Fold this protein.
Amino acid sequence: MGAEPVRMMERNEAGIARVVARLGERFADRCQVGASIREQHGNTTTWVANFPPDAVVFAESTEEVSEIVKACAEEAVPVIPFGTGTSLEGQVNALHGGICIDVSRMDQVLAVHAEDLDCVVQPGVTRKKLNEYLRDQGLFFPIDPGADASLGGMASTRASGTNAVRYGTMKDVVLSLEAVMPDGRIVRTGTRAKKSSAGYDLTRLLIGAEGTLGIITELTLRLNGIPEAISGGICPFETLEGACNAVIATIQCGIPVARIELLDTLQVKASNAYSNLSLEERPTLLLEFHGSESGVREQAEMFGEIAAEFGGGDFQWAREQEERTRLWQARHDAYWACVAMRPGAKAVATDVCVPISRLAECITESRRDLDASGLTAPIVGHVGDGNFHVSLLIDMNDGAEVEAASGFMARLVERAIAMDGTCTGEHGVGHGKAKYLRAELGDAVDVMRTIKRAIDPQDIMNPGKILPEGLSR
Amino acid sequence: MGAEPVRMMERNEAGIARVVARLGERFADRCQVGASIREQHGNTTTWVANFPPDAVVFAESTEEVSEIVKACAEEAVPVIPFGTGTSLEGQVNALHGGICIDVSRMDQVLAVHAEDLDCVVQPGVTRKKLNEYLRDQGLFFPIDPGADASLGGMASTRASGTNAVRYGTMKDVVLSLEAVMPDGRIVRTGTRAKKSSAGYDLTRLLIGAEGTLGIITELTLRLNGIPEAISGGICPFETLEGACNAVIATIQCGIPVARIELLDTLQVKASNAYSNLSLEERPTLLLEFHGSESGVREQAEMFGEIAAEFGGGDFQWAREQEERTRLWQARHDAYWACVAMRPGAKAVATDVCVPISRLAECITESRRDLDASGLTAPIVGHVGDGNFHVSLLIDMNDGAEVEAASGFMARLVERAIAMDGTCTGEHGVGHGKAKYLRAELGDAVDVMRTIKRAIDPQDIMNPGKILPEGLSR
């Protein structure tokens, strides 16, 4: 598919064997070598082929992560961090074998500072668990990529999701990190101050580095107060362009919309079937407003006027929490609704992001391309940011279809880059998109490689990810 | 003062002479070697001793910056970028001599994409010039550090200022950069997409790097629509604690205040005298609200209730633009008001930032410390972020006073770090604060050095800044 066949690097068999033996002795049944657990840690929701690690160690503290990394560093054995395995571009694949460090047991909320609107968490805490923990204190953590991902993993892929248009992405909400570097050293990249000009931004360097520079072992996160009022609703449009133009106008007017999501007609059909809804089968925007009672009302009225101007139909309000939850659950289940559309097919989720002025053009061209290629693929998008997802439903046994999908994905990325956009808005590069990085960023890729080589000279931290030709090539 | 005496590195005299001659030939009168122009480029508003460069070259394009850097790289001669020279920690000092690249003539707004709320500018564009350019289109650029700094310089020091509590800092508003790297290569760190997960965040790595990793030659910036309504006012408090606690409550309630600034009693006195105001001489908050007409009214009412709870006095409204401008001009002139308080004294502006729960404690302890040390120093602060400034008015000929100020500054930083804060919220490290970096960030400083060494192995990019012991020590 989209990813090139992996050029198998010489596996460091002897080193791997020694490290696996040593970790087995040290961690006993927290070091697992069974085939199914290794396979599950090589690949879960991604479409990229599975490359299992040689062992999975369940770490329970920063010191243990450091100990494992030191053991691997001594033998030049790869180390791959694992949170919940919900990444989409093969980020947790052990392309050259090695040790997977599963941090899911590092799942404690270490501190909540309500006055400062921040908290300190271990990397295995998931976003839902954090929000359950915070609810009683009137606080919430806003980043919501759909999946109940771990916060360490979300930072590592620079995740975002439906709330990003209002609350930003992981790069905006992390105040500081603790990380284990490739030689096992434990470093802390910042303080709890809301802002700082003290030195290089190592926090942001580790966010989005997908574990290739270090393993995140603790996160200090900004929080928000739960808004006094939340309202939302759903609005069908005559055309995709109309829906996109309504989004542009909404953002331009400065309406502080919390969520503004697009479902194309095919996705609405899929969601109707899967989530038992009866939405009009047209391009549809799903919205949420946060604020005071009157603020939320005002935002909704302003949006209503804009929608009417761009061919929006009846705006159906979801004032009750229950109704909103049902709608947003349907949005979050979009992926599963796609999967259900074509039983037996593999759902290949890919994402790009473009300036919003180009969004309608990029989506409509992509839809034409899909139709011309004979591919079934609903489109959904975090359109307030210009970010959208295409979920290709592929029969992996049909070579021609696989070929067509592969061609489409390459054209989608080319199209986004030509519109001054990016090959990935939030899924990350992993193994699947490494080949597109140079087209987007040119010689900046060499600067990335310089940094990687300096920080991880043995190339043991999640090797083969992000950088297109590996470290030494 | 606060900075240690500079250990003079061996100046590369032969290399410098060759580069100066070569650039003189190439750039004619755009390459200046006169003493006063060199001195002015070594140091302007900072208190750190002046180290002038050997020549100042006025670059007019990215290609010229690249050409100059290449010439310097060939001879291992230092290169220091210069915007408007308003940095406060000696960032533009040529500690080891070398070439200053003045980018103030690179002052074009290259593009405004109103639909996407972004623009592309050269690094010499100042924030005021950009805002004048944008006004007709209903857009504005929100970062306002007071000084009319260049945008390249603001990015390089990770500047922020009065609006940061609502709109973020430079790290939040830069979408991508073009930069000349230490070997003269020109790289672009991102696209115009609002978000991306494509590779390491080189944009954020260059922001705050103070020209030690590369020279910023172009910036793509997020913009905001000018709010429908702006209102503001001023509110005196019985105590400093009361003012700080009102700020905490305001932030916690989620009031999206655009500006919330503290002036302590001494600063109010200074500003009354300098800006011809008649404010009550008490700890005072200066506020601004942005939003819709009703939203702004609601925010102000909510704040009024909070202020009353914490000993706030009469809230004086400044509804007219003119009155607001006068108040904010007084805030921006705070530095000059301090200077005027004690003619002949040098104003030494320093800043720290702490979690806001510790703000009242940090400011009152610092005030006690100042009083006990017999120092005259008003305090102002971007208190919504926990960031405050102490402006020490020092007779530089009085050794005991200089000593006392130096001791105070060290204790201020220790105090902030002990409260889980940072040695600088927005001024940057430069030369003046390099010695505090390890106390704040520990071994993370070594990771910074690893990056610096890899990207700039000859240590020619603004050497002696940020990293406490230089590159090779």
